[in-house]
Amino acid sequence: MKKRTPISTIMTRNLITLSSTDDLITAEKLFRKEHIRHIPIVSGNEIKGMLSYTDLLRISFADAVDEEETDVDTIVYNMFSIEQVMAKNLVTVSSNTTIKEVAEVLAKKEFHALPVVDNNELVGIVTTTDLIAYLVEQF
User: Which residue range or ranges hold the CBS domain (predicted)?
Assistant: First the structure.
């Protein structure tokens, strides 16, 4: 295992993002359609927050709905905005941060994804799933 491998080698680059003016119904549909658990909230290329599927589950009964269900009960989602639900005080890393350093951050914190930011521009996202896949590849 290489000790100085940068996170850019395993991060997701083709990001699915939303803006704070989008709604939670759109977010819910993206989570389900794309089978993802985190969506960066951006203004242009600048990250403003992170919305996780867990954030939505906290305010709804979406987890009680069949995973294959495409219709979402929108009553609760209409009561909140993305801005109200997203995490705002983000920890970010740069693309040259090592995989080991990212693993250390994620091991100490209570979140499962980190935005990758270079020069104030969102360039990727790295998740605990990315790290596990990398570790599995090493064996």
Answer: 11-67, 86-139
Residues 6+ apart with CB under 8 A from 86: 20, 41, 48, 49, 50, 51, 55
- What does the pLDDT read at residue 3? 76
CATH number of 7-138: 3.10.580.10
Domain ranges (residues) in the chain: 7-138
Contact 129, 117 (CB under 8 A): no
For residue 131, give the amino acid letter. L
Q: State pTM to two decimals.
A: 0.86
One DSSP character per residue, 73-97 reads: --TTGGG--HHHHSB-S---B-TTS
